Amino acid sequence: MSLRIGVDIGGSYTDFAVLDEETRDIRTLKVFSRPDQPGSEVIAGMQGLIDRYGIDPADVGYFTHGTTVGVNAVVQRRGLKLALITTARFEDVLEIARLKIPDPYHLYSSRPEPLVPRDRVFGIVERVLPDGRVDTPVDEASVRQALEQIMAMQCEGIVVSLLHSYRNPDNEIAVRDIIRRVHPGMFVSCSHEVWPIIREYERTTTALIGGYVQPKVADYLTSLQKALLETGVTSELKVTKSNGGVMSAENGKTNCVQMILSGTASGVIGAAYVANQCGIGNCMSLDIGGTTADVALIVDGQPQYASGEYIGDFQIHIPSVSVTSIGDGGGSIAWVDDYGVLKVGPHSAGSTPGPACFGRGGTAATITDAFAVMGVLGQAELGYNSVKVDVEASRRVVGELARKLGESVEHTAESIVRVSVSGMYAGVNRLISRFGIDPRVFTLMPFGGAGPMLGCYLARALNMPGVMVPTTPGVLSALGGLIADTKNDFVKTTYYDLSDETAGRLKHDLDELERQARAWMADQGAAHADPRLLASADMRYQGQSFEIDTALPLDAIVRGDAQALRDAFHREHARLYGHSDPQSPVQIVALRLVIVSETPKPALRQIARATEPLQARATARVWMDDAWLEVPLYLRGDLRAGHTFEGPAIVAQDDTTTCVLPGFSASVDTYGNLFLNQDVAHAAKD
Q1: What is the pLDDT of residues 474-529, one digit of tens each?
Q2: Residue 408 — left, alpha, or beta (φ > 0 → left; ψ -120 to 50 → alpha)?
Q3: Which domains does the chain have, with CATH numbers?
Q4: List of residues 6+ apart from 521 with CB closer than 8 A
Q5: What average pLDDT does the segment 44-55 reach?
Q6: For 1-25, what is each residue's pLDDT tens digit?
Q7: Helix (H, G, I), strand (E, B) or coil at 473
Q8: Cα 385 from Cα 635, distance rounded (Å)
Q9: Where do runs of H (alpha helix) occur along 20-138?
Q10: Cα 301 to Cα 601: distance, rounded to the nearest angstrom
């Protein structure tokens, strides 16, 4: 078995990347997503790979899959009807939250309605103290009374999140056992099993998100496993995780909260892989699919990680690749508000009915339709010839907006693009401020079906020096999934001052996490591997309210070298904030351990060097910068290492179309990646 397959489901298309481990050839495919029948697109794609490339499913030895089932359930609020059991007199945990409004600059901003309304939150008699001692054992009568009301309300599942269960889960376990004894068929989840962190609200809302989607995700994964067997794929199904790793589908059925951001994380892993292969240290990835545009930072070749990413209206406090949604996807709908102002998004046409130019019943103007009107699309095959671009349909729907605005169809189409880029610009600026980086020393890597169309526009707005379009940008997220490592995170709340006396205690906590980590890796079938262990801790100066995740040297923990651990925190604090206070006592709030079993990474294949100048396949009439221009149309398959050309131009390929604006010069590297460097004189044009 020598084939590895990665699959990524997006809003419009489902992407496939197939790696032949012997030849290192990568073959790709796109099929339309089926949000109405999740999973069917995977089966259709497998049949497409058989028909197009003649692959034998029996040769598939590795199959990874990124799914949006969980995140879509949260965003659309179509998960389980849950009840929450918490400690008596703490029933308002979801309403109180952190007493912050989402947008402090919006006078009418308000917190979203919780996934579990107040009338389905039940307090029970019990109490665990902050040090883990059980002050009041679980009162079974209060649990049974809560269950009577829960069953009367026809709830489909229960999440148990009790005070200080991160320190001692005994009372949560006792409540779970009572529920299973009284109602054996009821779904029940405990917060200490999902992510045992300090801070009640963060632990509770993370557990609720997991419980809200878990049965739906579990059913989906079971159906997919059966369907893959029917196609002849016998390898174990793997699923990509929010932290950029993979785990078994069986693990995903019981721990789906770890895979809720799987698709977006896979894209960043794919981008980091390509950036490292090409020697790009600082890269800003821009993943634009059918619904959203997501940006992430790759610094010194490594993706940036964070906790507290948003899933729709809610933060989920698990480690994940730091991906921020900053704008609109190719299917985002343009509209004119009551004041005559052109807006783009947030609603998307998705894959059904999709943009008007796809001929699948779409009647609203989208960003994709704008590019069709501008002449960027419709010049060559698109989506592996799965659609024929109907330019007249796009002109019709964009024309409706043009009449409202009193502008030409072409000007309106380019305005749609500019409005979407302005939203991305604002979002990227927030990210720049958050991480304190200078975009002028970063290379923009656009991918996804719509990324290369918009990449030059965003780079021009941000005054970024260059854009790099990978060889298969439309399916880079799928590629990221099949090269992702087997990886998991573990956490233990410590909450003590760091001193010579407590350093030994930290070693004991590390040993406990390591036992859990190695047992998990063995369960994934990777016990034979030599995994890497990475330690970090949530640390702060005594008296501070929030912590910094600080990488710690394992040998310093083993030696009990408290000073080395303190120095690591002082350095990280100084890096982030420009100052530190070595004289102040340091607290360790939580210890974290990451275990990683590396997946073999194929080296990118070099392509043939150019022996002749690049020849355009045709000339296209394209609207750019408020004028019709005659621009060359190149096919990506014709590009050879060393080829160069000047913008404006269009580069067409099966999985996407690259729009090269005036002021950009293009060159092809030895791996076939397309580098677009801009003339600074054009950078402020938009």
Answers
A1: 888 888 988 899 999 999 999 999 999 899 899 999 999 999 999 999 988 875 56
A2: beta
A3: 77-217 (3.40.1360), 346-420 (no CATH), 486-597 (3.30.1490)
A4: 486, 488, 527, 529, 531, 595, 597
A5: 90
A6: 589 999 988 767 788 989 888 887 8
A7: helix
A8: 14
A9: 40-53, 69-75, 93-96
A10: 15
